[in-house]
TrEMBL record:
Family: Belongs to the acetolactate synthase small subunit family.
Protein function: Catalyzes the conversion of 2 pyruvate molecules into acetolactate in the first common step of the biosynthetic pathway of the branched-amino acids such as leucine, isoleucine, and valine.
Name of this chain's protein: Acetolactate synthase small subunit
Species of origin: Sulfitobacter dubius
Gene behind the chain: ilvH
Domain ACT: 30-105
Lineage of the organism: Bacteria, Pseudomonadati, Pseudomonadota, Alphaproteobacteria, Rhodobacterales
Entry keyword NAD: no
Pathways involved: Amino-acid biosynthesis; L-isoleucine biosynthesis; L-isoleucine from 2-oxobutanoate: step 1/4; Amino-acid biosynthesis; L-valine biosynthesis; L-valine from pyruvate: step 1/4
Length: 186
C-alpha cells in the first residue's frame, strides 16, 4: 500500500485541511442603510435577509430626516467577505434604499447600545449588584425592596460583560435596543 506524501509547505485540498481560506472567515459587519420612510420599506430589507438565509445579530431603525422622510436602518450581520458583499449589493438594489454603508470597512466608527436589566436579589447580592453597577457607570432607573432595573449604555461588549456579572446575582429580564452606529470624523 502506497502512502500519500505532501511536500512540506504545500497545501492539501482535503476535507481534513483545517486551515481556513480567506473566503471561509466569518466576519461581523455593521451596515447603515438609508431608506424612504414608507410602509413596507423595513419589511423589504429584512425580507431579503430571511429569504437568503442571512442572520441579523442586531437591528435598529428610526426616522432621521423628517422633511426628507428618510429612515436609517442599522444592521449588524455576520458572514464571509463574499457574503457581506452580496448582502450590500442586494440591499442596495431594493427600491426604497438610498444608500448602503459598511461602517466596518469604511473607517473608524462609534457603536453604542442601550440595555435595561431587571435583577431580583436580596442581602449581599443586592450590595454586590449596586457595587458592579457603580463600576460600570450604570444607572438605577427603578428600585424596590427586592429588585433593581438598571440602565446601561455602551459598546455591545460592555453590555454583554455586565449581563454575565448580573446572572449569578439574580438577572431576571433583559431588554436591548440593538446597535446604533455612526462613522467617526468628517
Amino acid at each position: 500500500m502506497a502512502a500519500l506524501k505532501i511536500k512540506k509547505g504545500a497545501t492539501s485540498h482535503s476535507a481534513y485541511n483545517l486551515r481556513p481560506n480567506f473566503s471561509d472567515v466569518v466576519e461581523k459587519h455593521t451596515l447603515a442603510v438609508l431608506v424612504e420612510n414608507e410602509p413596507g420599506a423595513l419589511a423589504r430589507v429584512i425580507g431579503l435577509f430571511s429569504g437568503r438565509g442571512y442572520n441579523i445579530d442586531s437591528l435598529t431603525v428610526a426616522e432621521v430626516d423628517h422633511t426628507g422622510h428618510l429612515s436609517r436602518i442599522t444592521i449588524v450581520t455576520s458572514g464571509t467577505p463574499q457574503v457581506i458583499e452580496q448582502i450590500k449589493a442586494q440591499v442596495g438594489r431594493i427600491v426604497p434604499v438610498h444608500e448602503v454603508h459598511d461602517l466596518t470597512v469604511e473607517g473608524p466608527s462609534v457603536e453604542r447600545e442601550l440595555a435595561m436589566f431587571k435583577v431580583i436579589c436580596k442581602g449581599e447580592h443586592r450590595v454586590e449588584a449596586l457595587r458592579l453597577a457603580d463600576i460600570f457607570r450604570v444607572n438605577v432607573v427603578d428600585s424596590t425592596l427586592e429588585s433593581f432595573v438598571f440602565e446601561i449604555t455602551g459598546a455591545p461588549e460592555k453590555i454583554d460583560a455586565f449581563a454575565e456579572l448580573m446572572r449569578p446575582l439574580g438577572l431576571a429580564d433583559v431588554a436591548r435596543t440593538g446597535v446604533a452606529a455612526l462613522a467617526r470624523g468628517v
